[in-house]
Amino acid sequence: FQTMGNDRNNDRKRKHAWNNHTKVKSVEAGLAGLFFTCDGHEKNALNEAYNLIDQLMEEVDGSSAAGDSEVKKEEEEESDIDPDEDIADTIKRQCREAKEAAKDKKKKRCHQRPTGVKNCLFVTVKDADILSLCDKMIEIAQASPRCRYLQRVLPVEETANAGLEDMNKLILKLVQRHLVADSEGKLPTYALEYKTRNNDSIKRNSVLEMVDDAVRMVAPAAKVDLKNPEITFFVQVVRTSILGGVTKNFNSRRKYSMRPNQEEKEKDEVKKEEEKEEEKEEEEEKDEVKEEEEDQ
């Protein structure tokens, strides 16, 4: 009995050790990518993220080299035909190989980095303009229902270890990069979005002071706009990592929600119905006038 008890204890220790090992992981410094939040179904949410990324990246890749890909495809198809192979078997084999190649491409393109926090996903995307990719993702996700599990996405430009010194450097980089005057000399209005997850070592007031110091150094004429800023500096402290970046029109775009605005859609549908009814009434009035004229 003692041996069985020891075996059970050892099993428990092994399980706990594995759980602890997975939890201590966090996003390493020096990365760029997309930070997603989800509603608890992390595997499903990750698949949604991969599918969206793959679709958008395929559009970019396809538009940049459409002609070359067509020529290459024809050459591959000609060289891939086996004279001794049945046509149906050839088609099946080519379809299978195409699917496998697409899967390999997707795996190489996207890499998940563990955050150590539930419902938080971080994905790096090879050869991607993160800001543009996130912007397009928000556009299509808010236009029509595309995501069941993903909630929000943020374009992360910089990652660092969670500490005051690294935080200060990260914020200064972002301010220097984005708080720049346009061709008319106008500076964008700005605000800060700060959130911590499983970490309370860095207080919000400290981060606000860092942003203020950086703005005074880089663009002292820039103004804060808390209601509808043109750019929003976001800083997410996720366990032992800092994720930072900038979003445009953050508030007006519903804080980069991955869900369509149902209220707006319902209003549009009601408006369309009202317009149809008005058109119908106008047609009926025209018909009545026409009938009266014919009677006269």
From TrEMBL:
Keywords: RNA-binding. Pfam families: THUMP. GO terms for biological process: tRNA modification. Residues 138-248 form the THUMP domain. Residues 11-20 have a biased composition (Basic residues). InterPro entries: THUMP_dom, THUMPD1-like. GO terms for molecular function: RNA binding. It comes from the Eukaryota. Gene3D superfamilies: THUMP superfamily (3.30.2300.10). SMART domains: THUMP. Residues 1-20, 61-88, 253-296 are annotated as: Disordered. Residues 261-274 have a biased composition (Basic and acidic residues). Residues 75-88, 275-296 have a biased composition (Acidic residues). This is THUMP domain-containing protein. It comes from Pristionchus mayeri.
